[in-house]
Amino acid sequence: MILALIEHDRGKLNEASLEMLTLGRELAAELDAPLKAVLIGEEARDLAARTPAYGVSKVYLVQHERLDDYGAEAWGHSIVQLARSESAQVVLAAGTDRGNEVMAHVAARADLPLASNCTVIRPGDPYRVTRLRWGGSLLEEAYLGGDPKLITVAEHVIAVEEISNPAELEVNTFTPVLEDKDFRVRIIERVTEGGDKISLTDARVVVSGGRGVGSAEGFSVLETLAERLGGAVGASRVATNKGWRSHADQVGQTGARIAPDLYIACGISGAIQHLVGCKGSNKILVINTDREAPILSRADYAAIGDLHEILPAVIAELNKLP
Ligand SMILES: Cc1cc2nc3c(=O)[nH]c(=O)nc-3n(C[C@H](O)[C@H](O)[C@H](O)COP(=O)(O)OP(=O)(O)OC[C@H]3O[C@@H](n4cnc5c(N)ncnc54)[C@H](O)[C@@H]3O)c2cc1C
Taking the domain 2-183, which CATH number applies? Predict the structure, then answer.
């Protein structure tokens, strides 16, 4: 059977898990094996009902008095115990920061190899996988051994698909044996930057700025547009390096990977390290003075000109709308 970790934060599903389940379902069909899911912590209980639509036949709800919040070691140790007790052939997780962190603990504890950020999984002996490397600028073909196979699925690559005939779901509780050392790293405090603002990764519209914005103050027009569109502000690494924006706003290989409906790239040239962070966007609108800028090759729409003239004009038009 395939055991798939459904990632959540205090009960809120990480949608990347649905991409992982979509690939997991294909693998399960190839292996003629059931797809089962693991949810860790009581707060995740309600998510179980969502899983049959993605081909899951059984959910293991991992319960332990100390599993009240995310903890990579504790989650990893729980998965190792569950995978062993249920003789999982494959353990899958989303290729998110947390998914990769938990699976790294699973691999270390079980002394097994881990293939992270995979886009294709071909069963066999050994498995062959295609992995995203270097922020997506390189595709690696790799062999994967070990039993069970440990794999994370690259984010924003697989289109989520539901099935039309979900099976009846069975939910079982699993109680792992955890020790103090499993809780060496745990969350003790959360500090939210930007208060109630929509987060970069959740926003359906992201208005991003780069060197072309020119200064920290220059971002105020991007803020206004983002607010008008109910979105969030992002930035290139030049903008964060210069201190115009916080690192939390950075989009790219060393920042956030996002997949909004609309990405508005203002004064950003389109370096590969930036593009890997926004290529999952449904539509990209580029605002740039240089019609030869590399980002134009990824644009669905473009406005060639000075962003400090174009953005106020766009906002003025939006303000005319009822
Ligand atoms: C290991 C590594 C990791 C990296 N990770 C990241 C990452 O996560 N995210 C990231 O963004 N970068 C990353 N980078 C940096 C990346 O290579 C680029 O240097 C960076 O993305 C360029 O930022 P930019 O597009 O803002 O600046 P530039 O490349 O300088 O482009 C500025 C653009 O603004 C346009 N422009 C100028 N004035 C205006 C105006 N008034 N109106 C409209 N357009 C204007 C210009 O025509 C130009 O296209 C990484 C690099 C390395 C080596």
Answer: 3.40.50.620
